[in-house]
């Protein structure tokens, strides 16, 4: 799909306000600038070209983009690059192929009101190192999560500025997806960043799913550093020990203050 198909309205409004059809405008530009100008310009707007520019994945190619049957979303087919081996999701190394699973849909950052999905048929590998048949690891996804990493990062960034509910509404997505995104980013952070000294933590318990479920959120609230450190999927009293285990004694033993406005859960 050409992005110009979506933006044809924008492209065809001339500065004086009268509009030209896409091809007519192309011809007009060709007449003014010589053949090739419009074609080059329009080709440069191809959706796949843009994706290759901002989210290129080694070992995979974007095949083509099209509208879904209901025209509400854009689907981008992805396939492995010829000759590139699948990567085992357990040991993160290339392994020989075994078979293929059903096609999966990974939600990408929406574009101009259209939902965007990457469609990909997951491969399984026969990994001798791990001694199992395992599903492959794909660079845009995180295990079973249905959102792409790019979209999770996008949502999680907004969720730092707005409430999760507001983020969901503004992005026309669900609270659960925003939660998934935040959890992914927090988990990634725990695995990849150095935490340093933490003096004060704030503990927040929230109800969700019509009040039937609880989450415990632990923030670092030191001067100049406010960040979500950890998410527990139960009420605080049950999940709190998990926070100390995950963080490790070296960090938790130095915590001086714990702030919480909760009453004792019964
Ligand atoms: Zn493996």
Written description of the protein model:
This protein is α+β, with helices and mostly antiparallel strands. It has two domains: 3-148, no CATH class; 194-259, no CATH class. Helices cover 34% and strands 32% of the residues. The strands form three sheets. Strands 1, 2, 5, 6 and 7 form a five-stranded mixed beta sheet that branches. β8 and β9 (213-222) form a beta hairpin. It is globular and about 55 Å long. The termini are far apart. Residues 88, 90-91, 95, 127, 129-130, 134 line the site of zinc ion. Zinc ion binds next to loops.
The number of helices is 9
Cofactors, ions, other ligands:
zinc ion
Low-confidence stretches: 2-20, 37-42
Share in β-strands? 25-35%
Using only C-alpha atoms, the radius of gyration works out to 24 Å
End-to-end Cα distance, whole Å, is 56 Å
Q: What level of helicity do the residues show?
A: 25-40%
Number of E-state strands: 11
Largest sheet: 5 strands, mixed
Say what oligomer this is: single chain
Structure class: alpha+beta
Average pLDDT confidence is 81
Count of individual domains = 2
Large-scale geometry: globular
SSE string, helices as H and strands as E: HHHHEEEEEEEHHHEEEHHE
Which structural traits does this protein have?
266 residues; alpha+beta; 2 domains; four-stranded mixed beta sheet; 9 helices; 32% strand; globular; binds zinc ion
């Amino acid at each position: 799909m050409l992005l110009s198909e979506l933006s044809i309205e924008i492209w065809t409004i001339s500065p004086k306000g009268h509009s030209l059809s896409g091809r007519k405008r192309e011809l007009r530009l060709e007449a003014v600038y010589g053949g090739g100008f419009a074609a080059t310009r329009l080709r440069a707007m191809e959706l796949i070209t843009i994706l290759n520019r901002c989210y290129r994945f080694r070992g995979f190619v974007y095949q083509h983009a099209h509208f879904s049957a209901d025209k509400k979303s854009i689907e981008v087919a992805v396939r492995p690059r010829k000759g590139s081996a699948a990567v085992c999701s357990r040991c993160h190394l290339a392994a020989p192929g075994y078979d293929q699973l059903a096609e999966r849909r990974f939600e990408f950052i929406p574009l101009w009101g259209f939902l965007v999905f990457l469609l990909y048929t997951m491969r399984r590998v026969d990994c001798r190192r791990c001694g199992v048949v395992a599903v492959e690891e794909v660079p845009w996804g995180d295990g079973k999560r249905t959102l792409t990493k790019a979209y999770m990062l996008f949502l999680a960034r907004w969720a730092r500025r707005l409430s999760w509910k507001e983020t969901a509404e503004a992005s026309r997505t669900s609270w659960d997806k925003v939660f998934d995104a935040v959890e992914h980013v927090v988990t990634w952070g725990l695995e990849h960043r150095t935490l340093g000294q933490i003096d004060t933590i704030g503990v927040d318990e929230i109800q969700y799913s019509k009040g039937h479920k609880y989450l415990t959120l632990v923030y670092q609230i030191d001067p100049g550093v406010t960040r979500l450190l950890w998410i527990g999927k139960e009420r605080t009293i049950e999940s709190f020990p998990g926070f100390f285990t995950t963080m490790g004694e070296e960090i938790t033993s130095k915590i001086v203050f714990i702030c919480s406005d909760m009453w004792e859960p019964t």
